[in-house]
Amino acid sequence: MTIPTTIPAEMHEAIGMIERLGGRTLVDKIVTMFESSARDRFAKLDGFVQAGDAHQISRIGHAMKGSAAQVGATAFRDLAASLEKEAATLDAEGLAALVTRLQAAFAATLEQLAACRSAGAQG
User: How many CB atoms are closer than 10 A to CB 80?
Assistant: First the structure.
């Protein structure tokens, strides 16, 4: 199978491994869970950012980092790791900017996952 350039190699490898373990059904389940949990975490994150709750922001960053790693979403994972590490040191403006970048990375990740799933279905 040819890997489309829009899909990071790490994602292709992660999704391929999931598919080898449990087929397309498992891939679909894990990607759906990844998307759903990230959306839930973003909803909670907004409130924690407004409240200035660095501990909870860091915990969400940690959880997002782990979820992103499972599907090979390295850019999203790296930004989530930054959120985890920097939650206590960034001011409100810095946190808002990081969350905005994280949301953009999430949108890109969803596009990449869709392309990866499509490529897998065709390959």
Answer: 27
